[in-house]
Amino acid sequence: MRIRLSGYFPGFVSLIIFSWIVSCSGSSGKLPEKGTDTSVSIQNTAGIPVIKMMSPSENAEYKLHDEIKVSVGSDDKTIRFDSVKVYFDGRQVAVVSSEPWECSVKAAFNTFTGRKSVKAVGYSKDKTQSVTRFVIVNSDIKPEKYNIAVVKSYPHDREAFTQGLFYDNGLLYEGTGQESGSSLREVELETGKVVRQHNLDPSLFGEGITLYEDRIYQVTWRNKVGFVYNRSDFKLLNNLYFQTEGWGLTTMDNKLVMSDGSNILYINDPGSFTTVSRLEVYDDEKKVDQLNELEYINGEIWANIWMTDRIARIDPLSGRVNSYIDLSKLFPEAKRREVNADVLNGIAYDSRGGRIFVTGKRWPQLYEIRVVK
């Protein structure tokens, strides 16, 4: 739950073909140091646990590309499995045909960060039993930390509560928020002048925007509705519907990426706006939530982290945070309070010129920046 007073606002991915490699044998493997939680198991009609998972333990933590040892057993000695199938993140990774019921989920399966399921299904001639655990996969790298240098500054409307931003063909496009104040704007970069504006219904809180082909997409915060406009005249072409909150939005190749304030990015089809996949974002220690305004830059998803002065640079092929950019010195909070400005929010990329622009809610300036060590 978030309260919006003076702040916020909320403002694969390429299809990957895996070569599945599984190593399963009768040899025992070292169990995770987290321990052997056996509280989750399936019981037979007599109340005796039939199948249980000795490893991994519930919420055990791993890194990307770690091998994950899976070990399954039963307290009921009369139960004889003919085989055990093991699934990781919904994909079958192994079939074990003899005791001990152990295998190793190889690194080739463990390629996305997030909370992942490990499921084992035991088969015998008279029954089938299953047990499921969840593990946490963190990034396998420590994110680099960068600062910024200002290349140039431009005027920015101090009344613009910036929720979404992109650059195209010499112009900025900006989505603003607040009930009774949300809009879609076309803005001159050099002057900050608004040359075209479409106001949303007062009941709607505008959020992220992006350009796909010749259409502008805009989402709203809690209304679960968005809009598709013709870029040239802002004519409404279609409505969008989704089940989460809408925060940030960007275009990645032939997909649209949306954030909802959590650590999850939704990869959507532009035609139907249905979610075709999800990306859970983690660094090397924890999930990274409060993901807000988005921009796709040189193969990475850049995300404002709400209520901070940081941008996370996210690898869309794995979900890991490659690096963080610190913008705290760009427009310090003390100076923001003096002019009633709000948090950092808004990233735009000039792909032809290689320029990166950032701003914030009610900021008097928009900045062209360069990332430095």
Structure characteristics:
373 residues; mainly beta; Immunoglobulin-like; Neuraminidase; 2 domains; 1 helix; 2% helix; disordered N terminus
Walkthrough of the structure:
With 373 residues, the chain is mostly beta strands. The chain has 2 domains: 22-138, Immunoglobulin-like, CATH 2.60.40; 144-372, TolB, C-terminal domain (Neuraminidase). Helix content is 2%, strand content 50%. The chain has 1 helix and 30 strands. The protein has one helix at 333-338, and strands at 22-24, 41-43, 49-55, 60-63, 68-73, 83-88, 91-96, 101-105, 114-123, 128-138, 144-155, 162-168, 171-176, 183-188, 194-199, 206-212, 215-220, 225-230, 236-241, 249-252, 255-259, 264-268, 275-280, 291-297, 300-305, 310-314, 321-326, 344-350, 355-360, 365-372. An 8-stranded mixed beta sheet has the order 24-25-26-27-11-30-29-28, with no helix packed on it. A 5-stranded antiparallel beta sheet has the order 1-8-5-3-2, with no helix packed on it. A 5-stranded mixed beta sheet has the order 4-10-9-6-7, with no helix packed on it. A hairpin with a 5-residue loop joins strand 18 (225-230) and strand 19. The radius of gyration is 24 Å and the shape is elongated. The two termini are 35 Å apart.
